[in-house]
Design goal:
Elements: H1 2-64, E1 69-74, E2 77-83, H2 86-92, E3 95-98, E4 100-102, E5 105-116, E6 121-124, E7 130-135, E8 142-143, E9 148-154, E10 160-164, E11 169-174, E12 181-182, E13 189-192, E14 196-203, H3 205-208, E15 216-221, E16 227-235, E17 246-253, E18 264-272, E19 277-281, E20 286-288, E21 291-299, E22 302-307, E23 309-313, E24 317-322, E25 329-333, H4 335-343, H5 348-351
Antiparallel strand pairs: 1-2, 2-22, 3-25, 4-19, 5-14, 5-18, 6-13, 7-9, 7-12, 8-11, 9-10, 11-13, 14-17, 15-16, 15-18, 16-17, 19-24, 20-21, 21-22, 23-24
């Protein structure tokens, strides 16, 4: 009986603890649900309040933008205008130019290599076969016309004679050593005058009709800061089957010896249209609503967006086909800033975003 009472007591304790745990879980769920509802209510309240503030802010911006931007419609077509104060024009850096007639300049880009001026290159060959008795110059030495390069003992007469340089320049090849037998058919020295060099440019068939003798060429050495200007002096009349190109040659002065034979170069040849045509500055062209446009000066501080059509594009100007007339004033510099003001203003919804 005493043992049964102890077991009964333990059972009551277990039941009591289990009931307490269930009650605690129930109360916790109720509290968590109340907190979640409270957080959602607060979040919705703040979201609604923020939306109201943003709507008020947008409404304010629409009205505040009318001071410097204006949108007008004529004949069913939108005419977008921007108004700027004199101070704003100075800050933007507005520059005005008039549509005029001119030539379109474009570039053809070619690659090439620096070569020796073969008109100033000398192959030194012995007059008679013999033995090299003395050698006075080494590879890379600068020599003058008449400088003695070596002394040869003739095999026939056994008398010595001197080998002299035929031109001023540097020894770029040397094929003779002391005591060596040299033939009268072998070049023992090669001397090059590097005060001028040839720039040999590869011209492919598609560009050949645009290349003319006398054209100006701007040369830039690849991997260096060396730049120079010259003219086309020669165009190879025969197609080179190995390079699949023709060669156009430019002769350049090289007094400082900055251009070395074997160096690679890039060249730009300036081309012009044969006749004068209406032109517009490339910097003035902007794309708005996927259309090419320029800003036209309508009156002091008022700029209107006008769609234009262009043809051939050059280095600085493009051929104007339609949209403006000769003499019309347009924004030559500062058009990008006007476009930025346009697409970020209240007119952005009408004008669209430029690309």
């Amino acid at each position: 009986m005493k043992i049964l009472s102890k077991k009964t007591s333990i059972l009551f304790i277990i039941i009591f603890l289990g009931a307490g745990a269930i009650f605690y879980s129930y109360i916790s769920n109720i509290l968590d649900n109340n907190c979640a509802h409270k957080i959602n209510d607060d979040h919705n309240f703040h979201s609604e309040h923020r939306d109201i503030e943003e709507n008020d802010h947008e409404h304010h911006d629409v009205h505040s933008g009318h001071d410097e931007h204006d949108l007008q419609k004529h004949d069913g077509e939108d005419k977008i205008k921007i108004r700027l104060s004199a101070k704003s024009m100075d800050l933007v850096g507005i520059e005005i130019e008039k549509i005029r007639e001119g030539q379109i300049q474009s570039n053809i880009e070619l690659i090439g290599e620096v070569g020796y001026n073969e008109d100033r290159l000398a192959h030194i060959v012995p007059r008679f076969p013999g033995i090299a008795k003395r050698i006075y110059k080494k590879l890379g030495d600068f020599v003058k016309t008449g400088d003695v390069l070596a002394e040869i003992e003739s095999n026939e007469s056994l008398s010595s004679y001197k080998i002299k340089s035929l031109i001023p320049g540097r020894i770029i090849q040397k094929h003779i050593t002391l005591g060596e037998f040299v033939s009268d058919e072998t070049t023992i020295f090669k001397v090059a005058d590097l005060s001028t060099v040839w720039i040999n440019l590869a011209v492919y068939s598609k560009d050949l009709h645009n290349i003319k003798i006398g054209q100006k060429v701007n040369i830039e050495s690849v991997g260096t800061n060396v730049r120079a200007g010259g003219i086309v002096s020669y165009i190879q009349p025969i197609f080179n089957e190995e390079t699949r190109s023709f060669t156009a040659r430019v002769v350049l002065h090289n007094k400082k010896n900055q251009l070395r034979p074997g160096m690679f170069v890039k060249a730009k040849i300036l081309l012009k249209t044969g006749k004068k045509i209406p032109i517009v500055l490339n910097n003035a062209l902007q794309v708005v609503n996927e259309k090419l446009c320029v800003f036209v000066l309508e009156e002091t501080g008022v700029f209107r967006l006008v769609n234009v059509t262009i043809g051939k594009q050059g280095v600085h100007y493009s051929h104007l086909i339609s949209g403006l007339n000769i003499g019309d004033s347009y924004v030559a510099e500062g058009s990008f800033e006007l476009k930025a003001k346009l697409v970020t203003s209240d007119l952005g919804g009408h004008a669209g975003h430029g690309h």
